[in-house]
């Protein structure tokens, strides 16, 4: 258990303070940069900063859930999801830099809160742990769909990244469902949406 805690602490530090790396090619690697005016660039930057922040939260959430998961299959599913979220971190981080910005100043705060939520979810039992994973991914998928509507039409690079992220998140939700995820109560799903709105509003600006 101590070894796991040390490993996860190291992973948290790297999530927050070290550049992320992707095993897969970046979805936008072959896409030409578009001409964006200042307002379009700032809006795209804000949206990609929100997406990066969401991936920081996902890392922390799945780390916490994996620490307290009882079933090895559930633990492995959570670690697989976390691995792909690292790739999403790399993609969004690079895009933020290309747009002339930086990640959210609030990332350490969101990371700490998400880690605590993940640990708590895992302690409830594996079916609820997986249910939390499934609901999180469904909400993230809907959130990314809304960003595809909001991003400037000509910003094909950002759109390629968001599309691949959305597809990955929905696969994670399907995986959790196949492993026996329980459907979360409506009040809890509503609280998750409310907290996501708070994070989105703060991270878009800073």
Give a written overview of the molecule.
The protein is mainly α. The model has no long low-confidence stretch (mean pLDDT 88). Catalyzes the hydroxylation of 2-nonaprenyl-3-methyl-6-methoxy-1,4-benzoquinol during ubiquinone biosynthesis. Pathway: Cofactor biosynthesis; ubiquinone biosynthesis. Its cofactor is Fe cation.
Compact description:
The chain is mostly helical.
Order of helices and strands: HHHHHHH
Regions with pLDDT < 50 over 5+ consecutive residues? Answer: none
List the total number of helices.
Answer: 7
Mean pLDDT over the full residue set? 88
Count of extended strands: 0
DSSP strand content: under 5%
Largest β-sheet summary: none
Shape: globular
Task: Round the Cα radius of gyration to an integer and report it.
Answer: 16 Å
- Taking the alpha carbons of the first and last residues, their distance comes to 36 Å
Percentage of residues assigned to helices:
over 70%
Structural class: mainly alpha
């Amino acid at each position: 258990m101590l070894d796991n805690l040390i490993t996860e602490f190291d992973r948290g530090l790297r999530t927050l303070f070290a550049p992320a790396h992707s095993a897969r090619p970046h979805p936008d690697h072959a896409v030409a940069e578009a001409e964006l005016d200042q307002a379009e660039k700032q809006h795209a930057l804000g949206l990609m900063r929100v997406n990066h922040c969401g991936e920081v939260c996902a890392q922390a959430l799945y780390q916490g859930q994996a620490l307290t998961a009882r079933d090895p299959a559930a633990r492995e599913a959570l670690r697989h999801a976390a691995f792909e979220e690292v790739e999403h971190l790399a993609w969004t981080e690079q895009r933020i830099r290309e747009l002339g910005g930086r990640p959210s100043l609030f990332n350490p705060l969101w990371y700490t809160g998400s880690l605590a939520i993940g640990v708590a979810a895992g302690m409830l039992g594996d079916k609820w742990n997986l249910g939390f994973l499934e609901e999180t991914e469904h909400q993230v998928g809907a959130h990314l769909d809304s960003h595809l509507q909001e991003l400037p039409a000509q910003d094909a690079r950002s759109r390629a990244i968001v599309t691949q992220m959305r597809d990955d998140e929905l696969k994670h939700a399907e995986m959790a469902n196949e492993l026996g995820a329980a459907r979360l109560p409506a009040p809890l799903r509503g609280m998750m949406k409310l907290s996501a709105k708070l994070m989105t509003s703060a991270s878009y600006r800073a």
